[in-house]
Amino acid sequence: MKKLSIAAMIAAAVLSAAEAQTNVFSRNAVGVIKVAIPANRWTLVGYQLEPLNTSNRVADILGTNGIPDGTVALLFSGTSYQAEEYVEGDGWLPGTNLYRRGAGFWVRSPVGFDLYLTGEVPSATNTQVNLPAGYRLVSFPYPVEVDITNSVLNTVASDGDTILRFTGTNYVSAEYVEGDGWLPPNFKLKVGEAYWYRSMANKVWNEPKNAHYTYP
């Protein structure tokens, strides 16, 4: 089993939930994922944490500190894009789009900067990611790096399914071939990254947390 790994850091903490005499405690692990966003170039980003205030709106996922004016984030619904733009002094506009764990999105900025994604390490036993037929932007739903063959995508994929990583200039891909599995088999699902997934049929990707780390 792989150790929990997050690009920037994991800060595990035991926090008192009440006065000491109550003997009631809560435990959480707060993580930060750092993604380098180059100037004037689209980057595919994945969010693999749980928001600290239980909201999945763009400001809670991407933050507002250090975001350059004019930065744009795009969610893909399966048929069209929903855009958010960061405007200095106003924040994210319209600010209503939801960025969920296991999904992916594009980010582009007029200047290069480091995007810090913060949140709690997921404790859910399983995470479901819907993969309807066609293209979707997805990310591995937990903050660990795995080979695709060590994920449930190795068992739910159907012949002809394809996953694509965008390098900034071109795509590299892996394809599922019935009887052979994923080719090439060493395609990695990385922390902070997202991918295009082309599914040949409707399916559900149900990934178990304990296959990758145990927490809490």
Number of strands: 17
Q: How do the strands of the widest beta sheet line up side by side?
A: 3-7-4-5-6
Structural class: mainly beta
What is the molecular shape?
globular
Query: How much strand content do the residues show?
Result: 35-45%
Uncertain segments:
3-26
Mean pLDDT over the residues: 87
| Helix and strand sequence | EEEHEEEEEEEEHEEEEEE
Radius of gyration in whole Å, from Cα? 18 Å
How many H/I helices? 2
State the end-to-end distance: 15 Å
Indicate the percent of residues in helices: under 10%
Strand count, sense and barrel status of the largest sheet are: 5 strands, antiparallel
Describe this structure in words.
By secondary structure, the protein is mainly beta. It is 4% helix and 44% strand. The protein contains 2 helices and 17 strands. The strands form 5 sheets. Strands 3-7-4-5-6 form a 5-stranded antiparallel β-sheet, with no helix packed on it. The two termini are 15 Å apart.
List keywords for this structure.
216 residues, five-stranded antiparallel β-sheet, mainly beta, single chain
Structure summary:
With 216 residues, the protein is mainly β.
SSE order and pairing:
Layout: E1 9-16, E2 25-37, E3 43-46, H1 58-62, E4 72-76, E5 81-87, E6 91-93, E7 104-108, E8 113-120, E9 126-131, E10 134-138, E11 146-147, H2 153-156, E12 162-166, E13 171-177, E14 181-183, E15 188-189, E16 195-199, E17 203-208
Antiparallel strand pairs: 1-2, 2-8, 3-7, 4-5, 4-7, 5-6, 9-17, 10-16, 11-15, 12-13, 12-16, 13-14
